[in-house]
Amino acid sequence: MTVATAMRRLGLAVLLAAGLVLPAQAFKLTPIEMEFSPSGRGATQTFVIENPGAAPEAIELRTFSRDMDAMGEDILVEDIDNFVVFPAQVILQPGQEQAIRVQWIGDPAPPEELAYRLIAEQLPIDLGEAQEEGGQMKLLVRYIASLYVVPDGAKPEVSLISAGPSTDGSGLELVFQNTGSAHVLLSDLVLTINGGGSEMVLNKDQLEGVAGQNVLAGHTRGFVMPWPDGIAPGPVTVTFTYGG
Asked: Vertex 10, ends 6 and 11: CA angle to 5°?
């Protein structure tokens, strides 16, 4: 089964059903990111799901291989061969916690980091809780965690392969490429832009939507940001540093 969805922030809780009221105490999944070794003890990691609410919750957990298009949209394909999740389905009573063991059983020596998602979602099962008055629909919540299978020595290698006016001329288009063997977050990003005889330095606080973004190993990411004030429209030279 193929699922394509935008998940721009790690561990985002995604609403799966429309309704009138968001549950005050939906279930929780922690952590929202985990690294696995391809083999050995580090190939098995533990997550915890918790039900802080007043009603029992039925929850299912599945793993998905993760690809990413040039705009950062996740492309997910359910994976049933490379991870073992135990238990994969659970009913949590109010106040209960459950440890979830996730084990990598795939390639013990991948040439580069492999990216996956662990998705935990409430199931639309009536567990006997009282019905809400007024015909309100119960919102089903999904948690999305990032899984990375990281071979020894994996590291990112990021370059800015193009920078210039966007197609419509209203913004600055940047294309980053990660030719390394591990993902990278463009944290603490700083751009130095030269054009039309002027220079500007933009820090992460001025680069919303670009700074902190994820570029998976072997992937390219494109961004369009507002054209910087003080730089004449036209060709520019852009250099960057980041803290990743």
From this structure: 100
Among 148, 223, 145, which Cα is nearest to 181's? 148
Domain with 187, as residue range(s), is 158-241
- If asked whether residues 185 and 133 sit together in one domain, one would say no
Helix (H) or strand (E) holding 174, with range, is strand 171-178
Tens-level pLDDT at each residue, the chain (244 residues): 333 333 333 343 343 333 334 455 689 999 999 999 999 999 999 999 999 989 999 999 999 999 999 999 999 999 999 999 999 999 999 999 999 999 999 999 999 999 999 999 999 877 665 454 544 556 788 999 999 999 999 999 999 999 999 998 889 999 999 999 999 999 999 999 999 999 999 999 999 999 999 999 999 999 999 999 989 989 999 999 999 6
- Do 133 and 203 lie in a common domain? no
Residues 203 and 127 in one domain: no
23 and 116: one domain?
A: yes
Q: Can you tell me the distance from the alpha carbon of 4 to that of 129, in angstroms, rounded to the nearest whole number?
A: 33
Measure the CA–CA gap between 30 and 175, rounded to whole angstroms.
Answer: 33
User: pTM to 2 decimals?
Assistant: 0.85
The number of C-alpha atoms within 13 Å of 84 and in the hemisphere containing its C-beta is 6
Handedness of CA 119, 125, 130, 134 (dihedral sign): positive
Please tell me whether residues 134 and 41 are part of one structural domain.
yes
If asked whether residues 199 and 144 sit together in one domain, one would say: no
